[in-house]
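User: Just a sanity check before I run the rest of the batch. Below are the structure tokens for the first item. I only need the designed sequence back.
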């Protein structure tokens, strides 16, 4: 609604500005009047976009049907409920798209039957490493690169994500934060001195049915030893299988050169991870490049069996925690309405 009001004001203002142009250009030739008119409009549009991006009055990118509980929050910059096939339009560099699809309970053998609405299914197939990779690139989508960011999503791990029939479950990447700039800080390219790239992705590890899925941060901080890979630090609590679970992640980049970078995580609203002394960078040229939805089995051993994981209601915010789905029902638990 806010956007509608702003555009109505803009339309009125433009008419007024055109009248103003006419008053001051009565001695101009007609084409020169129009030239001035268009030049003014262009400048006005650029200014308006800048104002919208800095004041947060723009509607968030992504799905139009923002969760009721998030309406009015000006720091929500992106939201998707995975209801539309074009949900990926704000994401870049999608690879291995054959491993993702939108599903509902009728088209998935893993989701509970009472699940309403669609969710993103990601598959890591037996004998393969890749699940999926795609980035929400901040500069492209927000017009700037933030130094701190909040993300919340709901995730559902099928039992086949874990150990099954005597074979080991998934061990690898999960969604998280990216500042690699395609140069350093991921994939065996260590963050040598904090000037070229860093990352703080998620990691997930599917254990036994009783143990659940261990989630954590997989971080390429500034190299302090001989390692060539990142360091995984697990969250305090695992995520059970066959249940929609709320995951929230937050990072704040360190002051360049100081060990004061912050990472926090919450599972179903409970703080399960906090570290306040990360050193990811030594220059303020490195910022948060993207939020990276990444599923890739690490190491040299491909998947022993098929794995399935689901995502829904992914939100990116710049100002504060997103929190739990503020409705009577969570995704997957809706009994009455068609809204998941
Ligand atoms: Ca959905």
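Assistant: Here's the designed sequence for the first item:
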């Amino acid at each position: 609604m806010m956007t509608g009001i702003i555009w109505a004001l803009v339309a009125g203002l433009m008419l007024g500005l055109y009248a103003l142009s006419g008053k001051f250009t009565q001695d101009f030739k007609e084409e020169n009047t129009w030239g001035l008119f268009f030049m003014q409009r262009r400048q006005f549009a650029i200014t308006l976009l800048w104002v919208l991006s800095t004041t947060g009055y723009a509607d968030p990118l992504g799905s139009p049907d923002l969760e009721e509980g998030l309406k009015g929050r000006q720091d929500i910059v992106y939201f998707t409920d995975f209801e539309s096939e074009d949900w990926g339009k704000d994401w870049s560099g999608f690879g291995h798209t054959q491993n993702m699809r939108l599903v509902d309970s009728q088209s998935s053998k893993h989701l509970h039957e009472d699940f309403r609405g669609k969710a993103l299914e990601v598959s890591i197939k037996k004998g393969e490493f890749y699940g999926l990779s795609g980035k929400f690139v901040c500069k492209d989508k927000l017009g700037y690169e933030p130094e701190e960011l909040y993300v919340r999503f709901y995730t559902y791990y099928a039992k086949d994500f874990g150990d099954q029939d005597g074979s080991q479950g998934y061990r690898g990447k999960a969604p998280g934060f990216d500042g690699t700039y395609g140069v350093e800080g991921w994939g065996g390219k260590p963050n040598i001195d904090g000037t070229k790239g860093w990352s703080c992705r998620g990691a997930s590890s599917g254990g036994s049915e009783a143990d659940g899925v261990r989630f954590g941060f997989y971080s390429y901080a500034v190299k302090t030893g001989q390692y060539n890979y990142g360091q995984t630090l697990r969250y305090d609590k695992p995520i059970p299988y066959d249940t929609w679970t709320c995951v929230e992640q937050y990072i704040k980049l360190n002051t360049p050169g100081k060990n004061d970078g912050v990472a926090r995580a919450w599972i179903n609203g409970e703080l399960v991870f906090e570290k306040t002394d990360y050193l990811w960078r030594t220059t303020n040229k490195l910022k948060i490049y993207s939020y990276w939805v990444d599923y890739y089995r690490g190491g040299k051993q491909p998947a022993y069996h098929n794995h399935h994981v689901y995502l829904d209601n992914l939100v990116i915010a710049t100002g504060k925690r997103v929190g739990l789905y503020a409705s009577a029902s969570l995704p997957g638990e809706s009994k009455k309405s068609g809204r998941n």
